[in-house]
Design goal:
Layout lengths: L1 H11 L9 H14 L8 E2 L1 H8 L3 H13 L3 E4 L3 E4 L7 H19 L5 H16 L3 H16 L5 H25 L7 H11 L3 H27 L1
Antiparallel strand pairs: 1-3, 2-3
Helix pairs in contact: 2-4, 3-4, 5-8, 5-10, 6-7, 6-9, 7-8, 9-10
Keywords: DNA-binding, Transcription, Transcription regulation
Protein name: GntR family transcriptional regulator
GO molecular function, one term: DNA-binding transcription factor activity
């Protein structure tokens, strides 16, 4: 127990957090540690240990764990409780198929309403991605890039669904970059998306998005096929 507490303390920190910030702080600490691999798949996450570590009740810890479970970063296992989820699950291909449908619609709604400031913001995220090598940060910037192109979509529930899917993709990006020994991804598709959006070439943008997401689906299928053998 002492060894686990020391490990968690080294990964998450152990400073006391204000009660009104506890849920968000604990969620973000855990989420970051899962995405960058400091908390390995299969590791049990116990409510009481976290409550003791941060000096809070179990209620904000429980809420933080529920949020992470909703993002599929944690799973609940019988007799073990919450554990860190595998980086790639069997439903990963289906998740990308869903993203293709949702994000295509968001692009169609958003592109006609994007202004110069939206295009500039998207290009800014590309520049940051070009220079970033930390896997977790690449995932975050990738999510912000995509959302910057969808921001003007009028269906806000659609945007919430996409944002949730992109949060889950951060885990895949870490796997993808690590497994291929890469420090970053090429930004060719991202640049193409912004160019098409700026030109208001909606169907060109949708075609680039489909190609972009299909590459990820092929990588996942190859990985799952190899692990099944």
């Amino acid at each position: 127990m002492a060894a686990r507490t020391k490990l968690l303390s080294s990964i998450l920190g152990n400073e006391q957090v204000p009660a009104h910030l506890a849920r968000s702080v604990i969620e973000e600490r855990l989420r970051s540690a899962i995405l960058d691999g400091r908390l390995a798949p299969g590791m049990a996450i116990r409510q009481q240990e976290l409550a003791t570590l941060f000096g809070v009740s179990r209620m904000p810890v429980r809420e933080a764990l529920r949020q992470l479970e909703a993002q599929e970063l944690l799973t609940v296992v019988a007799h073990k409780g919450a554990v860190v989820a595998p980086l790639i699950g069997e439903d990963a291909v289906e998740a990308y198929e869903l993203r293709t449908m949702l994000e295509s619609e968001a692009l169609r709604q958003s592109i006609p309403l994007l202004g110069p400031e939206d295009i500039a913001q998207a290009r800014g995220y590309i520049q940051l991605l070009e220079n970033e090598t930390r896997h977790a940060e690449i995932g975050r910037l990738n999510r912000l890039f995509h959302m910057s192109l969808y921001t003007k979509a009028h269906n806000r529930k659609l945007l919430r669904l996409i944002d949730n899917e992109l949060l889950q993709e951060e885990r895949f990006l870490r796997f993808h970059l690590s497994s291929m020994g890469l420090g970053k991804l090429t930004q060719d598709d991202h640049n193409g998306l912004v160019d098409a959006a700026e030109a208001r070439a909606i169907e060109d943008a949708v075609a680039i998005l489909h190609r972009h997401l299909d590459k990820a689906m092929r990588t996942i299928r190859d990985y799952l096929g190899k692990t099944a053998q």
